[in-house]
Specification:
- The protein is α/β, with parallel strands linked by helices.
- It folds into 2 domains: about 50 residues; about 100 residues, no CATH class.
- Helix content is about 45%, strand content about 10%.
- The chain has 5 helices and 4 strands, in the order αααβαββαβ.
- Strands 3-2-1-4 form a 4-stranded parallel beta sheet.
- The protein is extended and about 60 Å long.
Length: about 160
């Protein structure tokens, strides 16, 4: 009779072998022109065009979008870290908090990134099933920044 850990080890070995084979096939058979031949895949084409930059345009601070996700409870201790590198009217991005900041931080300092309050995740039907709701807040903050904000012109990198 074999032990459960023996079966787990064999499964892990097969999984690693399968991943190596998949990576090999992706590297060998991936054809960039095949993707560009489909007109329906507009987002892929736009991403590829964005990667082809003229040689004279180097990436600078204006090409970065920062997505900061934090808690109002810890903001008091972390505020100074953000103020040390955030440059008003130069750095782009947002700070997403779980709840509205306390009156201690009102009015909001212009030396800080603009803040947004995340949607209350407890309203979601799947909330009781979430293993770690903080991860969902991070994902939703990234999506909110990418899809809803109008200041994404020229963004090449999203820094989380």
């Amino acid at each position: 009779m074999s032990s459960p850990s023996y079966h787990t080890n064999i499964f892990c070995k097969y999984l690693v072998i399968l991943c190596v084979i998949a990576i090999f096939f992706i590297l060998v058979f991936y054809d960039q022109t095949y993707i560009n031949s489909f007109d329906s895949n507009i987002s892929t084409i736009k991403c590829q065009e964005g990667l082809l930059q003229p040689k004279g345009t180097t990436t600078n601070l204006s090409h970065l979008m920062f997505v900061l996700v934090g808690s109002s409870c810890t903001w008091k201790n972390r505020r100074t870290y953000t103020e040390s590198w955030w440059r008003p009217n130069v750095t782009r991005g947002n700070l997403f908090l779980d709840v509205e900041p306390s009156k201690e931080f009102q009015p909001w300092s212009p030396t800080l990134p603009p803040f947004k309050v995340n949607e209350d995740l407890k309203k979601l039907r799947i909330y009781p099933k979430l293993a770690n709701p903080v991860h969902v807040r991070i994902y939703r903050s990234i999506l909110d920044t990418y899809y809803k904000l109008k200041q994404n012109d020229g963004v090449r990198w999203y820094v989380i």
